[in-house]
Amino acid sequence: MKYLTLLLAIILFPAIGNSQDELIINTENRNVTSLNGHWKYIIDQYEYGYYDYRYRPADQQPNYQNNHGAFYTDYKAEDKTELIEYNFDLAETLVVPGSWNAQEEELFWYEGTIWYRRTFDYDVQKADNRVFLYFGAINYEAHVYLNDTKLGKHVGGFTPFNFEITGLLKEKDNSLVVKVDNKRKKEAVPTLNTDWFNYGGITRDVKLIETSETFIQDYHIQLADGDMKQVSGFVKLNGSNNQGEKIKIEIPELNIKYETITNNNGMAKVNFYPKNIKYWTPETPKLYEVKLSSDQYHVTDRIGFRSIETDGSDLLLNGKKIFLRGISIHEENGSRGDRAYSQEDANLILNRAQQLNCNFVRLAHYPHNEYMVRTAERMGIMVWSEIPVYWTIDWQNEETYKNAEQQLSDIINRDKNRANVIIWSVANETPVSDARTEFLTSLIDKAREMDGARLISAALEKHTVSHDPLTITIDDPFAQYVDVLSFNQYMGWYEGLPEICSRAKWTIEIEKPVIISEFGGGALYGFHADKDTRWSEEFQEELYKQNLKMLETIPQLSGMTPWILSDFRSPRRMLKDIQDGWNRKGLFSENGEKKKAFYTLRDYYNEKEQ
Ligand code: GCB
Predict the structure, then answer these.
(1) Which residues sit opposite 558 in a β-bridge?
(2) Which fold, 215-296?
(3) Which amino acid residue places its CA nearest to atom 7 of ligand 1?
C-alpha cells in the first residue's frame, strides 16, 4: 500500500525527486506544522557521508537509495557484525532555526558540511491532503532527503524553498535529513569575499504545509502601476482541478466581493476598483484583510495599497514627495551572536530603527526573513530589499547569473504583496565593467518583468572628477538603468578625516532621486576621546555631523540609509580590543547600547520630519 501511494504520487507529481517546486507564499497564514526544534547533527568536513572514496556523489548513482553508508539513508546497523560508521541517534543536537556557529564553540569558525536529521510522525489518514516541506532559508547549499528519497537541492542562503512530499510520509518515524554546506565559493552569490559573518545552518523556520488537492499557491494583489484606483494582479491555483475554476477575493472593509476564473494554466487575472481606499503610509500603515478562496481552499492575508514612483529627482509615495529617513541593517541578533530569525528578533531590531525615527530600512546585503519585512510593514517602515550580488561576483559565469536571478525572483515572489517594500536592489559596490553591467541589466529586466510597480536600484560607488579628489560624481554607466540613484560613500572614514566633508563638492548630473545607501565610521561603545581619535564615539559623532551637512548639498537627495544600525560580526574586523570580530560602524553596539552618533542622526531625522 505504501509503495502504491508513493508510485501514484510520483506519477501525479513528477516534480518529486527533481528540485524545488514553485514557491508557496504567505506560509504564515496556512495550515502548517512547525518542524523547528532540536535536530541531530553530524559534522562532515570531508563529506564522507556523501562522496565515496572515488569521490562519487552517493545520490547520483543508480539505486541511490539503500546505500547504507550515505548519511541521508539514516540507516542503523542491524546486528553486531554490521559496519556502519555513523549514527544520528547517538549524535548531539542543534536548534533549528539558528546557525551552528552560534551554538557550539567548536563550530564557531566552521565552514563546510553538516548533516541535520529530524524525525517526526504524521497522520497519513488525511487522505485528500497534499503536503509540502518548506524551508525559510538554509545557508548556503542544501540537499534534502525524506525517508531515503532525495527531494532536491537548493542553492542560496537567504531565500525560501519548498518540496512536495505528498505520498512520501509514513505514520511513524519519518526521517528528514538535510546536508547543509556553507563553504564559500568564488562562483557563488555572494562570492568568497564579504564583510559579514558566514553563519551556516538551517537558519530560518522549517514547516510542513498541508493543502487541499487543488489550492491557491500564489497571488499578487497590489495597486496597478500608475493607477491608484485599480487593484490588479493574479491568483494561481496548483492542482489537477486548476482550470476554469472560480476564485473569490473579498476585502470586507472595502466592500469588495470579486470573482475571477482561472485559465488553462491555473492563472486567474485580478482587476477591480475599490472605493475609498485608505492608502498605506508610514504614518498610517493601513492593512486590509484580504480573503482568497477557491472551491476547495481558502487563505487570508493582510495587504496594504500604496503607490511609489519618481518624478524627476523626487520620490513620491501615494503621489506625495517623501524623504527616506533610513538605516542599513544586517539580519543579526548581536547579543545572541547569531542570525535574526524570529518575531522577537524582528521586534528588537526594528524597535531600534524606530527609536531613530526611521521610516525606511535597507535590509542589507541579502533577503532578510519574512518576519522582518512583515513587522516593518505593520510598523510603517518602508523597505529596500537586496540580493547578495556583492563586490566581486563571477560576472562571466552563466551559472552565477542564474543563481543571482533565482534569488531575485524568489524574494520578489515571497514579498510582492508587501506594501512597504518599495525598492528591489540588485547589487552592492560592484566594480564597473561591461560584463558586470550586462549581468545587472539582465537582473533588472527580470525584476521589472515580475514587478513593474516597484522601483529598482543598486548601491553604486562614487568617483572623483579628473584628478581632484574633492570633486565627486557618479559616472557609473549602470546609473542610467536604475529608477533611484543610490551609492555608498565613506568620506571622513576611508577617505580623510570628518572635516574633509566640508571641502567636498558633489556634482551629480543625473536627474533621479538620490539615496545615500551607506556612509559611516566605526566607534567602540563606551570609548570616549576627542573627535580626532579613531574608534571613539566622539569621532563617529563628528563624522555623522559633517556627513549630514555635506549630503544636504546634493539637490537630488531623497533619503539615506547610513551604515549601520548595530555592530555586526565580520571576520574582516579583528583589531584587538576594538573590533574583536565586529564591524563597529553601528549606532548601537551589538548589545543595544546607543553610541553618541545615534542621537545626531535621530535629531537630524526629527528635523527632517517637520
Ligand atoms: C561597504 C559595504 C559594507 C561594509 C562597509 C564597511 O561599503 O557595502 O558591506 O560592511 O562598507 O564597513 O566598510
Answers:
(1) none
(2) Immunoglobulin-like (2.60.40)
(3) 488
pLDDT at 466: 80
Cα–Cα distance measured from residue 114 to residue 140, given in angstroms and rounded to the nearest whole number: 11
**Could you tell me the residue ranges of all domains in the chain?**
2-211, 215-296, 310-609
Protein residue whose Cα sits closest to atom 4 of ligand 1? 195
**In this structure, which amino acid lies at residue 40?**
K
| CA dist., res. 117 & res. 71, Å (int) | 9
Q: What topology does CATH give the domain 2-211? A: Jelly Rolls (2.60.120)
> Which single residue is written with the C-alpha cell 569621532?
539
Over residues 293-302, the mean pLDDT reads 97
Over residues 392-411, the mean pLDDT reads 98
pTM above 0.85, yes or no: yes
Task: Examine the pLDDT at 140 and tell me if it is beyond 70.
Answer: yes
Spatial separation of the C-alpha atoms in residues 110 and 568, rounded to whole Å: 18
- What angle in degrees, to the nearest 10, is found between the helix axes of 434-450 and 398-415? 30
pLDDT category of residue 587 using cuts at 50, 70 and 90: very high
Cα 313 to ligand 1 centre (Å): 26
Q: Residue 19's pLDDT band (boundaries 50, 70, 90)?
A: low
Q: Pick the residue whose CA is nearest to atom 9 on ligand 1.
A: 195
Distance 577 CA to ligand 1 centre (A): 21
Backbone angles phi, psi at 207, to 5 degrees: -140, 150
Query: Per residue in 343-362, pLDDT tens?
Result: 999 999 999 999 999 999 99
pLDDT in tens, 27-38: 999 999 999 999
**Residue to substitute in 488, 567, 570, 578 for testing ligand 1 pocket (most ligand atoms within 8 angstroms of CB):** 488
Measured between alpha carbons, how far is 442 from 80 in angstroms, rounded to an integer?
59
Q: Is the pLDDT of residue 246 over 60?
A: yes
How confident is the model at residue 125, as a pLDDT? 86
Q: Is 132 exposed, middle or buried (0-12, 13-18, 19+ CB in 10 A)?
A: buried
Cα(217) to centroid of ligand 1, in Å? 38
Residue owning grid cell 576594538: 578
Residue from 327, 489, 518 whose mutation best tests the ligand 1 pocket (most atoms within 8 A of CB): 518
What are the pLDDT digits (tens) for 229-240? 999 999 999 999
Which of 198, 560, 583, 587 for a ligand 1 pocket mutation test, highest count of atoms within 8 Å of Cβ?
583
475-510 in b/e form (b: 16+ CB < 10 A) is: ebebbebbbbbbbbbbbbbebebbebbeebebebeb
Centre of ligand 1 from the C-alpha of residue 283, in Å: 31
Protein residues whose CB sits closer than 6 Å to any atom of ligand 1 = 195, 365, 428-429, 488, 518, 563, 583, 585
Q: Which CATH number fits domain 310-609: 3.40.50.720, 3.30.70.100, 3.40.50.1820, 3.20.20.80?
A: 3.20.20.80
Per-residue pLDDT at 75 exceeds 70: yes
